[in-house]
Amino acid sequence: MRSTALPGLSLFWRTFFLLAVLLAGGIFAWVQTLRALEFEPRAVQAAQQTAGLVNLSRAALMQADGINRVALLKTIEARAAIQVRPREPGDRWQSYEVDRFTRRVGEELRAVLGPDAVVASSVNGRPGMWVGFSIDRDNYWLQAEATHTGPLKRGTWFVWIGIALLATLVGSVAIASLINRPLRQLSFAASRIREGDLDSRLDENTLTSEIREVNRGFNRMARELARVEEDRAVMLAGISHDLRTPLARLRLETEMSVSDEDAKANMALDIDQLDAIIDKFMDYARPGETMLRPVHVSQLIDREMALFRDPTQIRITSRVAIDLEVLADETELGRVFGNLFENARRYGRGTYTGVADVTITYQKTGPWAIISVRDQGSGVAPEKLSQLTTPFFRGDAARTAATGAGLGLAIVDKSMHRMGGSLELANAPDGGLVAHLRLKRVL
């Protein structure tokens, strides 16, 4: 079953999000565990510290007589962080035990100080932690700082969690980058191979054994492709001499030895056809290196139109603006129009006139220029449109006797991709085949 998780994301971002979710879940579990483990010891510690202050204050007050107790209370208030004051019957106080933590603190204090100990969160409107105790039937309040006896505040938790999450994000980015770096290098090297740079190589000494094997396999493939490309270059270099030289001899022999003019013309036509087929094969097998420069489309079309001068076979009308420029290889683009005109001349003739009427129009779409070349023929069956750019495929069974090699539209499609453009073939609404050439405009 095909996975639909995280559609449209690159491998880096998928790895990053999965790691971030995993680590964030770990942080959440860690925080919950820490809170559970921190709760009991902190409550006991807070109670013991406060009980120790109460016992120290009680011991000091018990050693002083009634007169000296007042002076001692003032001294404690002036020099210590706590306050001890008499507890009056009319004092108003609020209970300290309002949640699980404070109830646990209150239980510990009563266990140490006795069941009559009182714990309050405010006395007479003054907040703090107040503990009530007795000395010789005299009641007192001891006020301690609540910050020393409370649980960790939310702000503290937020700081800790924020630092942990920041470290999680940084760690996720670092780990995802480390995991995806070999794949990014492989993707870049593959793109270089696709563009014709067969010297791209990957590191075969990486620490990861799986990546090392992939890199070695890629380098072997690149070397094989380089060898095949070299063999192809040698083969193409020999085609002109090895095939055209015998054709030239046949033509010469035909001119000198054949007396029948009709037979001579037919033989010459066959030799021209073989020569044209060789040209098609060489065009299709040509390496994919192109030099993109600004090209005046109108001038180039006029130049290619001039090669089709027989009005009894094809008439071409261009409506392309004279100032339209595209980024292309001039030779490749000329070959594109030449093949489209030849295809229209062979297969796009009108039913009644027997002449291929070709119209060239254009439109601008953002940074692109779409040049449309349309004939007035019978078109092609819709289910065969996608196969027209397949080498040696002809869209009509009746064309099996045609004189072409079946490579014209395949060459057009390949040339357009070399120049960073695209070819789209469609049937015109009122008849005929239309080829849409999409190329980058010169802005």
Low-confidence stretches: 1-8, 397-402
CATH third-level topology of the largest domain: Heat Shock Protein 90
Largest sheet geometry: 5 strands, antiparallel
- Strand arrangement in the largest pleated sheet: 1-5-4-3-2
What does this structure look like?
The protein has 3 domains: 11-155, Sensor histidine kinase RisS, periplasmic domain (Beta-Lactamase, 2-Layer Sandwich); 198-289, Helix Hairpins; 293-440, Histidine kinase-like ATPase, C-terminal domain (Heat Shock Protein 90), CATH 3.30.565. Mean pLDDT is 78; it is low at 1-8 and 397-402. The protein has 9 helices and 12 strands. Helix 1 (11-62) packs antiparallel against helix 4, helix 5 packs antiparallel against helix 6 (261-285) and helix 7 packs across helix 8 (330-347). The strands form 3 sheets. The protein has a 5-stranded antiparallel β-sheet. It has helices at residues 11-62, 66-79, 100-113, 154-194, 209-257, 261-285, 297-305, 330-347, 408-418, and strands spanning 83-86, 93-95, 118-123, 126-135, 138-144, 293-296, 314-318, 325-328, 356-365, 368-374, 422-427, 433-440. The longest helix is centred in the N-terminal third of the chain and has 52 residues, at 11-62. With 443 residues, the protein is of the alpha+beta class. Helices cover 53% and strands 17% of the residues. The radius of gyration is 46 Å and the shape is rod-shaped.
